[in-house]
Amino acid sequence: MAHLAIEYSAGLAARVDIAQVCKVLHATMLDCGIFPAAGIRVRAYRADHAIVADGLEGNDFMAMTLSVGSGRSTDVLQEAGQGIFKAAQAALAGPLSTPHFALSLEIRVIDPDLSWKDTPIHARLSGKNQGHHEQT
After folding, report:
1. Could you list the mean pLDDT of each consecutive 10-residue stretch along the chain, which spans 136 residues?
2. Per-residue model confidence (pLDDT) at position 132
3. What is the C-alpha separation between 31 and 95, in angstroms, rounded?
4. Angle of helix 74-91 relative to helix 18-32, nearest 10 degrees?
5. Residues 6+ positions from 67 with CB-CB distance below 8 Å
6. What is the bridge-based pairing of β-strands 40-47 and 2-9?
7. pLDDT at position 129
8. How far is CA 36 from CA 18, 46, 96, 122, 125, in A?
9. 54 φ, ψ to 5°?
10. Could you give the residue ranges of the DSSP H alpha helices within 1-136?
11. Residue-wise burial string across 62-88, b where 16 or more C-beta atoms lie within 10 A, e elsewhere
């Protein structure tokens, strides 16, 4: 499981192609080699109402939260996080070249005892045709 939730300010969509940023980050997550393709999700949500920093109208942000299943070491997650953050920095080079943008990434490890899933996608991508009530 690796779900990347992206929250961004409404004005950012006029400055960058959000769909393309999502594609770049999805490809980067695949390239990390530690997240199974069936468990990767990238979702972006526009914050229609947001006040950023000193409240100037031209201020924008992108806040990314990567939720992952337990079992990976901190070092492995740090390496993946660095790769994802660098990919985001490259995709957002324009806004980052101005003093009116904030970019962040946080990784959260999900407690498996407090997480429930029913994902037939896993069976399809692994080539297994048995029941789809598996833990991820």
Report:
1. 96 97 98 94 97 95 97 97 98 97 97 87 74 42
2. 41
3. 25
4. 150
5. 1, 2, 3, 5, 107, 108, 110
6. parallel
7. 55
8. 23, 27, 30, 9, 10
9. -85, 10
10. 18-32, 74-91, 93-96, 120-126
11. bbbebbbbeebeeeebeebbeebbebb
Amino acid at 110: I
Can you give the pTM of this predicted structure?
Answer: 0.86
- Check residue 66 and report its DSSP letter: E
Supply φ then ψ for residue 134, to 5 degrees. Answer: -110, 155
Are the C-beta atoms of 61 and 50 separated by less than 8 Å? yes
In this structure, what are the phi and psi dihedrals at residue 37, rounded to the nearest 5 degrees? -55, -40
Helices then strands, counting H and E runs in the chain, come out as 4, 4
For residue 121, what are the contacts with CB-CB under 8 A and spacing of at least 6? 38
Q: What is the pLDDT of residue 136?
A: 40
Which residue reads 């337990």 in tokens? Answer: 70
- Rounded to 5°, the CA angle 64-43-121 comes to 125
